[in-house]
Amino acid sequence: MAKTNSKSSTSTPYIFAAILLAVIYIINTFLVESIYASNSKVSKSTSETMSAINRMNSELEIVNGNVLRIVANVGDATQAADDATLNFENIRDAMADFEEIEDMSDTAKKRYNHAKAIILTYNEKLQDFRNAWNQQGKNGEVLGREAFGGDMKALYTQDIYPLQVTASEMLTATIDIVNQDTGKKMAANAKRSYVLMTMMLLVTILGEIAIFFIARRAKKAKLELEERERNLAEVDAKLKSTRQKASDLAVMNVLTGMKNRYALDNDVSERLESDRFNIAVFDMDNFRSINDTYGYDFGDEYLATVAEKLKDEFGNVAEIYNITGNEFCFLFNKEISESQAMGIVQNIQAVMSSPFEVLNLAVQLPCSGAVYHYLPGDCLNVNSLLVKLDTAMRSAKMNGGNMINTVVNI
User: Fold this and answer.
1) pLDDT tens for residues 45-65?
2) Looking at the whole model, is its pTM more than 0.90?
3) Exposed/middle/buried for residue 251 (C-beta within 10 Å: 0-12, 13-18, 19+)
4) Spelled out in words, what is the top-level CATH class assigned to the domain 261-406?
5) Most CB atoms closer than 10 Å: which of 5, 16, 247, 330?
């Protein structure tokens, strides 16, 4: 059973390291994919924008060439006008493609809308020009040239060509704005890429550090487990045989550093039949309120403080025992008489009832006690001795506390 637990404990750090590596890989993949997707989106949007605008410009150039054929009276003017109409259909298709592109800046949209308005005006002018050109007289002759005063060059130069130039300039300006926007987006993406790459580097470094410490800890844990397994059988056997002995032989209260109930039994048992001595017990009244108000840790600190004070004040006249929680027993030295013992117990009560500063907080509790002028043979054992003392002390507490009773021999 122990060996199975050891293997499980040893493998846990490696499992954690594997999970950590997987997490680092996933994070890095996500960051790279995020950078790539963002750059791809910007590139695709820019490419589509440029393609649409270049198609518009190209078709406008072709339209201008057809208009020049009409003005110069080269070739079939009607066919040239029909070609121009088809070119404008292509321009409208390019406009529709442009307007479907997302993430376009307001400035680029505004400049494009200006270009669009001029292109549409340009188209209307050409339609008017075509309709006028196709006018026929009564005998079927073409009257278009006369409709414009016979000066086609002036008509082209003043009314048509400026619209085509302005539309092309607006489209070119739109391209410039899109390029500027693309530059800003790419710069922002580059900055974001640096941040993400830095994050990736930090995550990787932290992961490597974590894995290093995990491996180091796992190795140390493995060595410790191997050592423990070698000694487990012997330690377990010794532990079972000595646990009870350690409990029985313990004669010191860990909290106060005083002798405990077992030590009192050892020190007094052999004196019950032959010795005369003075013994007293004291207990703080309503000590539970300390634990309830400030907590058990505070109560322990309070008891330790009281114990130190008692040892300093009365350690030279009595052996002091902390026999239960907040109950202290004083076994007075042999040379202390009954009258002296009575005076000392009054001082003990005064000391225990005085304020104590615990964790920067002043605490004061009254205490009650009992004193016993023991005569040889009064009690059969230490337990009956303590019962008499505790009975007298409880009687004091029941009568209001903060007093000392004397055990009366019967």
Assistant:
1) 788 888 888 887 787 778 777
2) no
3) middle
4) alpha beta
5) 330
